[in-house]
Write a structure and sequence with these properties.
Elements lengths: L4 E5 L4 E7 L5 H8 L5 H4 L5 H13 L3 E8 L2 E10 L16 E7 L10 H12 L7 E4 L6 H10 L2 E8 L2 E9 H8 L9
Parallel strand pairs: 5-6
Antiparallel strand pairs: 1-2, 2-3, 3-4, 4-5, 6-8, 7-8
Helix pairs in contact: 4-5
Organism: Halobacillus alkaliphilus
InterPro entries: Acyl_CoA_acyltransferase (IPR016181), Acyltransferase_MbtK/IucB-like (IPR019432), GNAT_dom (IPR000182)
Protein name: Lysine N-acyltransferase MbtK
Length: 193
């Protein structure tokens, strides 16, 4: 499996990786969308046929890249890294050209409640900041998802304001590069990918 980004996280003593999702991953991601801890926040608990159409469209959307996240090589999470320009969220604040956003879910239940969410998010934000022009990563988690809002805050995101999106009431959150690097700059460097 070829990874687009890999990071050894000292806090969990495991290697986190991300690889681009492909259409062949559709059944796995669909299974995750049906999980009880996922579907209230993603609203994609739909038939496989409908999800295949959704996933194909998402893969073809040039303003975002879909990833599967791994821990020690095991696929266990789904990510959408996107450019704010071209996304609906750009209408909710004065977006900069290189702002990126992130959506995520941990699909495999055995990875829940084990302290992996923060290291995973931290690795993805670090990956997004590899784009030198990006100074801000944006999130808009469902306002009811207190656990993820807490994880975003621990990672370095700050709450901006509630936002009413077409599919949810979200909380707009920003993670500025300067704040992120000040918080996490003493971590070991990226492994050789």
């Amino acid at each position: 499996m070829t990874l687009d980004f890999e990071w050894y996280d000292e806090t969990i003593q495991r290697t986190i990786g991300f690889r681009k999702a492909a259409y062949e991953d559709v059944e796995l991601v669909h299974r995750w969308m049906k999980e009880e801890h996922v579907h209230p926040f993603w609203n994609l608990n739909i038939s496989l046929d409908r999800f295949k159409t959704h996933f194909r469209k998402a893969l073809a959307d040039a303003h975002q890249t879909l990833y599967l996240g791994t821990i020690d090589g095991e696929v266990m999470s789904y990510w959408e890294a996107y450019w704010v320009k071209g996304d609906i969220i750009e209408n909710y604040y004065p977006a900069q050209v290189w702002d990126q956003g992130v959506h995520l879910l941990i699909g495999e239940k055995k990875f829940l409640g084990s302290g992996y969410a923060l290291p995973l998010l931290r690795a993805m934000v670090r990956f997004q900041f590899q784009q030198a022009s990006t100074a801000r990563v944006v999130a808009e988690p469902d306002i009811r998802n207190e656990k993820m809002i807490h994880v975003f805050k621990k990672c370095g995101f700050r709450s901006i304001s509630p936002v009413t999106l077409p599919d949810k009431e979200g909380l707009l959150m920003f993670c500025e590069r300067e704040d992120f690097e000040a918080r996490w700059n003493n971590e070991p460097r990226e492994t050789g990918v």
